[in-house]
Amino acid sequence: MYTLGEFIIDNKKYFSHSIESLLRLFSAIKLAAKAIHKEVNKAGLTKNIGSSGKTNIQGEKQQKLDFFAHNIFINSFRNRDVVCGIASEESKNFIILNKKECTSDNKYIVLIDPLDGSSNIDVNVPIGTIFSVYKYKKKYNNYHLTINDFLQKGYKQILAGYIIYGSSTILVYTTGNGVHGFTLDPSIGTFYLSHPNIVFPNENKIYSINDGNYVKFSNGIKKYIKYCHKEKKNGMPYTARYIGSLVGDFHRNMIKGGIYIYPNTSLYPMGKLRLLYECNPIAFITEQAGGKAIDGHKRILEIKPIDLHQRTPFICGPKNMVSKLEEFI
Ligand code: AHM
Ligand code: MG
Predict the structure, then answer these.
(1) Whose CA is nearest to atom 17 of ligand 1?
(2) Which helix (H) or strand (E) holds 35?
(3) 210 lines ligand 1 (CB under 6 A)
(4) 316: Cβ–Cβ under 8 A, 6 or more apart, which residues?
(5) What does the pLDDT read at residue 52?
(6) Which of 30, 76, 219, 284 is most buried, judged by most C-beta within 10 A?
(7) What are the tens digits of pLDDT across the range 58-72?
(8) Which tens digits make up the pLDDT trace of 117-132?
(9) Ligand 1 proximity of 244 Cβ (cutoff 6 Å)
């Protein structure tokens, strides 16, 4: 059995940044993931389920476990001294860790959705953490962190991944050298390699979209859905699957072959999902798994961010399915 730590060390030649930093980043991510796994697993038994009674910057209800996950990640990164700033879905402004300045050791920027799909916690549906890591770029002789350090284009990510808390807890990541998944053995608290080199399969017939929004979609999206209703793939009809938890929907689609679509709607004219800590990391993984991720027109990883919490329409999946949808758009 191959642990995550062993795998990283054995593949260090494929990572162009400091391997020690990567191990320290993962040390923080693994610790936080295990703490959240433990809490999510017993959510029905503790007072940690349900709404906290507060709303986030997007005006959405925050769940108690959203706060828990946010705090766990902040503390975990703070104690590893490898990250100088974090932006989180649960915090309006970015957070500076430890000191006001980045140093040459402590120079990574993390963007995170600590617990995505958290409205599903109370009903035992898979939820996930999504993370995205960039290198801090020294400006002149100045190590002072600014908002622009967080507003980098997605193709500059050096590490991205997610943790899915489902029937088992799996950590999936890429550093630009393929996509690899590690399943947590909760009895000893270790992540073992279970899904090496994940790629979208050739046979793709799942489409995932919130059909309840149908009347609010553009004509192109409506036509694509009609196409999926009518068309057959090797004699078999397309299959609709949507659980409303991005990590769960994406993970299934990447393993089984399917497209995920959250377009702009009349309710969400800019789309619903957030570019920096939801779409960019999933887009990086999509491309590394042989797929394509677009906002309907443009490659997600090339969008220049202008706001920490900006939204974007999001379409990701196997290249052939995304290209077909583009024909309709
Ligand atoms: P959240 O970050 O507030 O949890 O919202 C993001 C979630 C995604 O996980 C999911 O894909 C989407 O919202 C579902 O939205 P909808 O319920 O509108 O289909
Ligand atoms: Mg989210």
Answers:
(1) 244
(2) helix 19-41
(3) yes
(4) 250, 259, 260, 279, 282, 283, 286, 291, 292, 293, 294, 300, 322
(5) 63
(6) 284
(7) 667 667 788 899 999
(8) 987 888 889 999 999 9
(9) yes
In the chain the domains, ranked by start, together with CATH numbers, are 4-195 (3.30.540.10), 206-328 (3.40.190.80)
Q: How confident is the model at residue 256 (pLDDT cuts 50, 70, 90)?
A: very high
Q: What is the dihedral of CA 66, 68, 71, 75, to 10 degrees?
A: -140
Q: Is 272 in the pocket of ligand 1 (CB under 6 A)?
A: yes
Pair 281, 130: CB distance under 8 Å: yes
Q: What phi and psi values does residue 328 have, to the nearest 5 degrees?
A: -75, -35
Q: How far is the CA of 117 from the centre of ligand 1 (A)?
A: 5
The token pair at 113 is 């959705």
Structure tokens at 94: 């970015």
Ligand nearest 212 Cα, by number?
A: 1
CA distances from 27 to 5, 77, 108, 207 (A): 9, 9, 14, 35
Is 133 in contact with 160 (CB distance < 8 Å)?
yes
What letter represents residue 187's amino acid? Answer: S
The residue whose CA has the least distance to atom 5 of ligand 1 is 117
